[in-house]
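Re: weekly structure request thread

Next one in the queue (161 aa):
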Amino acid sequence: MENEQANDHPNVAVMPPLLITATLGLALALEQLSNIQFLLPLELIVHQTGIGGVLVMAGMAIAALGGTEFVKKGTNISPHMPSLKLVRTGVYKFTRNPIYIGMLLFQLGISLFLALEWGVLLTGLSATVLHFGVVLREEAYLREKFGKPYEEYLESSKRWL
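Done, posted below.
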């Protein structure tokens, strides 16, 4: 029984906040090592920082809404802990992955705000790793754990947007 509980999680490849942090760190390092520039024309600086700020705030808000629903329903947020309940309310009516969408918007927003060309480019890498290394594993886990109710949820909601 104890071993079953120890394995009661989706076995994700990476912790999503660590992925976003590492990718932004890599972007900062690559900015210092390379000289690609497509975000820096002076006339766009004000525009890109404004859009970046909006994306950062939107990302934080969307992720917070997702996290709040988990807390309200009494289930774990961490993908290394068991899912206790299937959450289909709040922002989860519209997307199955609001926390990850929020994290990606945050990464893109920070990248635009700081004019990190590599950050913009690496947001695609983060999305790919989240999809294959986290989301698909979580979906398989939730399908096995919750069965038909989860299958119905899959039919009534979008994975991303």
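The radius of gyration is 18 Å. The mean pLDDT is 89.
Next request, please.
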